Structures are given as C-alpha cells and as structure tokens.
Amino acid sequence: MTKVAELKGGSFTLSALHLVDGDIHKAADFLKQKVEQAPHFFASAPVVIDVSQAGDSIDFSLLKNKVSEAGVIPVGISGCKATRLQEKAKAAGFAIMNAARQAKATEPVMAPTRIIRTPVRSGQQIYAKNCDLVIMNHVSAGAEVIADGCIHIYGTLRGRAIAGASGQQEAQIFCHNLQPELISIAGNYWLSDNIQEDFWGQNVVISLNENNLNIEHLAL
C-alpha cells in the first residue's frame, strides 16, 4: 500500500506569551508592539499562551482573535490545569500544551559543530540542530542564524542570532562585531534598542544569568 503521509515527532522553537493579569487587550497591544519592532522575527510566528496567572474567567475566543490581530499565530495554551478551562480553550481552537510532559524529554545528543564560511545574506536562515554553529563571515540584516548550542560569529552580526533554541540555558553567543536586530538565548531575547551603546560594534560574549541576558566585552 502506498504511503500517503507519515506522523513523526519533531522539535520546534515556540515563543511563549505569559498572560500575567488576564488583561487580553493589554497583552495584545504588547504583542503588536513587538511585531512592529522586529517583524522578521515575530510576524506570523507561532505562540503558546501561558494562562497560569490569568485567573479562571478567560475569554479564549477573544484571546485567540486579539493575538491573531496582533500579527502572530496562537497555537496552544499552557498553564491551564482546570478541566473546565481546558474544554473552553479547545472549543476556541487551542491545543493544550503539557509542560510536564515536555520536561521529561531526554536531552538531545549533540552533533559536531556546523561551520559556515560564506556570508549569511538577507533572507537566509541557518539552523544548527543539536550542535554549535560557527559563522566565519558576516550575518546580514534580515538574516537569521539559529543553534541548539552556542553561536560563534567571526564577523559582523547585523541580523538575528538565536542560541539555545531548544532551551539550553548554558548556550552563549560570541560575536566579533555586535550590531544585531535581535539576540536570543533559550527564548530570552533583546532587540537592538536593548543593547547598551558601550557594546554596540564591539567584540562580546552574551550569556544567560537567571533568565536575563548578560553581555560582556570579550578580550581578543
């Protein structure tokens, strides 16, 4: 019998929106600002919404519509333990994300470092799955380099660098000339306007400390 489809497990990077006070309109405005600041990164990106702090009277249909209007794609709900709320979320078209099940996943086996010697041009995306990524050239504005491990850029970073894409908080970004649109480690990100002037255009290392990004000058 000829195969018509296959169902396999996969690993994908999703942003999480934490609905901290149940104010859907305020959260949607926040999302819209982020999409306008970095459209290449956030526009039409899949988002999981954490409602663990949002109370028990959530209008899931309104939440889905407002998040969609902000420019991203709401795919699931996390932090929703009450069966009644889960049923309402499902009725609105959300998947129920099980964080506990994700936490039990085995650590991926790291592969050899991926090395890119040519410039990464605008519109390109490079992904180093289960390994570190070394870029021996420049990363142009509008380009994106992603690694489950660390990222080393021996040129100018003008695009986006996303390390620890599968949640590895020990991942770091090493860059010889920092001028990015966005930097991210394990889902924690900064846009260009978050980076202090002292580090702009400098040789730096970026790490994660208690879920906060940290930038330090890197001695040559």
From TrEMBL:
According to the lineage, what is the superkingdom? Bacteria
Question: Which InterPro entries does its entry note?
Answer: CAP/MinC_C, MinC, MinC_C_sf, MinC_N, Septum_form_inhib_MinC_C
All residue ranges annotated as the Septum formation inhibitor MinC C-terminal domain in the record: 115-216
GO biological process terms on file: cell morphogenesis; division septum assembly; regulation of cell division; regulation of cell septum assembly
Q: Which SUPFAM superfamilies match?
A: Cell-division inhibitor MinC, C-terminal domain
Q: Per its UniProt record, what Pfam families does this chain match?
A: MinC_C, MinC_N
Report whether Cell division shows up as a keyword of the record. Answer: yes
Q: Write down what this protein is called.
A: Probable septum site-determining protein MinC
